[in-house]
Amino acid sequence: MWSQAAASSGPLEAAWATDDAHWWYLSFSVGDSVSQSGMPGTLHLLIDADDRTNTGGTVFDAAVGLAGVDVALDLSRSDKTQGNGVGAGAAVRTVGPTGLGAYRSAYDLEVVALPSWSATRFELRIARGGTLDGFAPLGRAVRARLVFASTSGAVTALPAARYTFATPLEPRARTQRVSAMPSKANGSVRVVQWNVSEGSFRSPANHAKLLAAVQPDVILLDEAYAETSDATLAEFFARQELAALGRWRFVYSRSGGRQRTVVATRDRDIRQAASMVRMEYPAGVLDSVRAMVPTAAQRLFDIEATAQLSSTGAWISIDGIETLFVPLDLQSGGFFRNPQDQLRVLQSRAIRTAVQRELASRATRGALVIAGDFNAIGSYESISTLQHGLDLDGSDLALSDAWRLGERSLVTWTDPKVGQFLPGRLDLTLFSDAAFERTGGFTFTTAELAPALAASLGVTPETSERTSDHLIVVTDLRRKR
What we know:
Layout: E1 2-5, E2 12-19, E3 23-34, E4 41-48, E5 57-59, E6 66-69, E7 71-75, E8 90-96, E9 99-100, E10 112-114, E11 119-127, E12 141-150, E13 155-157, E14 161-164, E15 189-195, H1 205-213, E16 218-224, H2 230-237, H3 240-243, E17 248-252, E18 260-266, E19 271-272, H4 285-290, H5 298-307, E20 314-318, E21 321-329, H6 339-360, E22 367-373, H7 381-384, E23 398-399, E24 427-431, E25 436-444, H8 451-457, H9 463-467, E26 472-479
Parallel strand pairs: 15-16, 21-22
Antiparallel strand pairs: 1-2, 2-3, 3-11, 4-7, 4-12, 5-6, 7-8, 8-9, 10-11, 12-13, 12-14, 15-26, 16-18, 17-18, 19-20, 20-21, 22-24, 23-24, 25-26
């Protein structure tokens, strides 16, 4: 384990690293909560991949730079800002004798940085194999340095450090990764959450195959298109792959515009919460915030006033426990405390109010599952608002950690075509751990499947990517005894 402490004042505090046969894992801490994709400046991870000072180039100066740099990973890149000097996304740049080269997609090095929301500590994963043109695989040892260049012009850095890999590099064989789908424990109910991608869901043949592949008992969908109806959903759940699993019953939201939400279950009864069929903001809430944001951002609130909340609620009995299932789709984009982030918080507060009202309407309080696309790339407040104190015993709802099949990653969204933004953890499942124990879970993508398994499911490695930029998140729950 490699660790270092800051030598001078600045936002960077410390860094750590470890490795396995395929990946280099790094972690760094900062003094104030910030989003790694939207900082007031750029964080550069400078890497001397071959541990030689006479190759590559020198970046910055002797005080904060590093000689022999071969590649730089930029978090919160400075060439595409979001206003107010806040950076946007990430990139890698090869380095030569003249310094930093052109911005390149960080997907070329399979970079992941989590969490997606604002925090004081982040984790990075970088491919050791080196798939970027002009960038060789990481050697047996590397040198690296973290440098932060703020929009004010100040440049601070952690000390340069040499890291020796403990694990020999091995080529990765994707086709050998996942040969069987994870089964659920006895007595468990499989809850599946998925952002189905509004445009793609209009031709849902692949959606049916992918959902059937994970054998769900309860499904929560978000971003269903505006014309979603009883007829379109009945047709969807009658598709061969889903119909073979059992008899499906479903409800859907009448609010949310082009991002409707759906709850479905097989071989169980379902009842839509009457107070949550169409979910609206409390009167005046949007206007009060709209008046405080820049003129250019006010249209965002106008659209929201028409669409209202992308959420609903449905009651399903899980092993005798009446459980309220709440799918959602929160505002996308933005950074810490900007208008999009403020709108996400407003949405979560309004959904919380609706949930509390529905729970209070019953003689016996039910359990709760809230799942969907939280899009939390600014503050954590939109998540914590829907966690705090909502469990049966007054404690916080638990957040399910669903590791991606075949990887040590919690990524639920990825889009190499966009390139500017790293894969993120946008889709979350919160549940009552006073009522249920989590017996398993995973995040599903066909990219990780062995050929025989993919063929048996009627999919290819590319099916997930072609269907939605979000992955399917699975959580297995069982009543606590």
